[in-house]
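Record format v2
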Amino acid sequence: MSNEFNLKRKQMGIWFTLPTVIILILVLIYPIFASIVLSFQKVRFLGQGLSKEFIGIANYISIFSNHTFQSAFIRSIYFTAIEVVAILSLSLLAALLLNHPIGRHSFFRVVLIIPWALSPVANAVLWKWIYNANYGILNFILYSLGIIHEYVVWLGKPWLALNMILLADIWKGIPFITLLLLAGLQNIPNYLYRAAKLDGANTWQQFVHVTFVGLKTPLVISAVLQSIWALKVFDLIYVLTKGSPADSTVLLNYLAWRETFSNLDIGYGAAIANILFCMMFLLALAYIRILRPRQTRRGE
Amino acid sequence: MNSYINSKLSRREFLKITAVGSAGLAMSQFLSGCAPKKSEKVKMNVLVPAAPDPAPPGVAKFAEDAFATWQAEHNVEVVYEAPPWPQLHDKMATSFASGKYTYDVMYNCGWVPEFADYLYDFVDKLPADLISDLPTSSFSTVTWKGKKLGVVFTLSLLTLFYNKEHLESIGVKEPPKTWDELKGVAKELTGGGRYGWVLNYGAPEGIGGVASYWMVYLQQVGGKVYDENGNPAFNNEAGVDALQFMMDLMPYTDPGSISYVGINDATNVFASGQASMMMNWPFMYTAASDPSTSKVVGKFGTAILPAGSAGSASIDGTDAYTIAKLSPNQDLATKLIEFYLDKDIQKRQVLDTGWLPIRMSVLNDPEVQEKAPNAAVVLEQAKYPYDSFVTPDYNAVTTAIGVEIQKALSGAQTAAETIQNAFDQVTEIIKKRQ
Amino acid sequence: MFYFKRAIGSLFIRLCLFVFVGVCLAPVLWGLVTSCLPQSALTSKVPDFNLRNFTLENYVLVLDSSRGLFLGLKNSFLVALFTSIVALTFGSAAGYALARLNVPKSNTILMMILATQMFPGIVIAIPLFLAMTQFNLIDTHVGLIIVYLSFILPIVVWIQKGFFESIPMDLEKSAAVDGASPLQTFQYIVLPVSLPTLFATGVFAFIESWNEFFFAIIMTRVNVKVSSIAIAEFSGQYQTLYGQMLASAVLASLPIVVLAILFRKFILEGFVEGAVKA
């Protein structure tokens, strides 16, 4: 009886998974395969379509010895680390706020969606305008408040420009993660809090032992997704700085685009993209490892 | 329990809606694909930027009646695709890489050598009187390996723009004519929140990027980027002097310049009266005369760029039309480009949109000269060299040079170091291409 | 003393909420103001906020039919709607299956699904364009929807899987004891309980499809121009019409905000209390 039941569940499982897997394979298997193959080739814009010549790992070798790539690599790691930490903590705070009885009003949830609803290109142009050296509102406000004594060229100095891009991306990324964490918060049954209170836990202890524990899965998923998105950042760089000043805001995905579409060196660009893929894959594996031990303890 | 029944219904509904919806979409695609093509009209696909960037009639608002007539006469339907300018290169690269016919006529801006293999050389098929009416040097950026692969349709050269009021306030009646005069005037005008010079140094690559500006100064001291064999030839006094001049101007330049990615940002500063001089394309004349965006309407003038030791020089904006090799309508496409270059159409182009014509006869037309005073200045500038040094590696080369120049402009390295670094990198890039 | 502490606490929360709303809305408000002022009022060291200057001219210019904003909105809506419906359906089904239904090699499948997310669109674009051209799917709604599904489905699967896993097993076990088939358990027990997440994911799918730009540029030409492309047209090489671009962005974001307001109750009303049978 239970075997038949389990068989039924397995069959249903397979049928449920099939449509997704089929779509993904149909659409992506050829492009992914092609992009891997391209990275081992010297591709030129000649002839009818493209002319391809197999050159083994030459692309990868020249990438790793390339100074621009090395700097972009380090910058991407910095960018991703800071962005993930910032977004996760700020979103957690926002989710807690919106879960609080006072903050539960739907007005706040609609406000939350607004940064997210803005088109990425318009968002980039908006922030470019906000950061403008002469007419940007950021300079105006800070100057009027006396915080700065002369206008700052936000996108003009290497580290500053990178961090301003980071700021804009964090602003854009908070709504989704907040929603995710909020949904997770609402999934934590109330009786757990009551039980903790009965056991004598104060607010902080309740947070650590009930809230944080209950949010572990959404937090890890958020970390994985946000890391992937941080490594893929493109629109902001393209509109705000085009990699300037002096390539100091060039991150890996932007570099891949520049090599592929601007310099028309598709093989080289594909190699960079594949390296990005490996980075994301390893990161995801690491995150999942954090999740796994938990699963055996799950069960209320 | 009610909520459970509701959810059951809603899930069935979901599936139903999806199924019906997808079937509906599929059907409509299928049906539209199956519709018999009754008309014999030929369809031509034309890829151009969206206005206000240089665009043909039908995208930009001019000569629309004439265009409709032309289409009817030739039994053609011209389908425009007008993505934002920054995406043009990506779209063309993708379409060429796929090896399939996508476009007939395409706008091009310095990419002709890159895409030379995919372009059809139609220029010799144009009427002789048209070709003789075009400045010969305008073909230098659209010719590759001896074949003329495109036609520039607007005379767009960088010239000097200056604020007349500002100059008069320090007693200068004429715009600066030499490098020393430029530096002197810029120095005097800087101060009190105002800058003598502004330009966009934020983007390293492309026409209108920081490397291309350096090429302006390079030519003004008689330098060249490449020699006759296509090898880099700027690692000399000319290259260093050109860069040094840009660096010398920095104390009198808007500090925000390093963050301005597009020419538009620099234009804003000039048009608000905060900067006194800049280099810009002829189109700016119209933009700065628009009262809703500009505070210097009627207060600015334009002149040829100040001369270095070898005289004045500029670069070509190289906005051109080209035809794809894979196009099945090459003759018709040639006729379309001929139409865009027609005298009346070119006249309307300048009068209605502010983009100067390329035909000498139209440039010298008194009505045009009156409405567009900068036409005379640009014609004057065209008497001096205006090479944009376009090659298949233009993007990679200008990126390399531009990044180094940005480091120099921010004071991180000397001019000599910069030119040496840039030279080494460009040599690498050229070697890769062999 | 207790009431005093409570008052401070609630004041603090209110302050935080105020900051929160401010941070979310400030840049957008500035965008709104910019779209209502002519460029000349904005380009001074001190922006000219004189009320005289406020104008809706940018909006009028933007709604001009040659800009194709309406066409863009219509296309965006169609594409976003179908993508999110299909993504939610297939994605939550797969998420549940991989969470609970003993699918063989589920971990490998999950990692593979996530892995498809990790290939930057940059390089996939050209081969994908080639494939889509072969099947005549360029510049079609179906083509764009399929492409969007390929990168929205993995996220839906992962989020849904996470939440289905966090639903106590007892819930499903008690349903099985009551004689429910796996399908019925899914429909009547699991789904109602996960409505908050389903909505969050649905919102995600909709907004991501609505705002997507890179593939929209590559995969469409004239007929399926979406709103994000229409907006981007205001930023050109020689001129960036800030006011008009922001005006069009405001207009293009309105449908989403309106939908969010309409469905605000559904965005996260928990059904968790009382769902577990004692």
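Chain B touches chain C through 61 residues (CB under 8 Å).
Confidence is low (pLDDT under 50) at residues 1-10, 32-36 of chain B.
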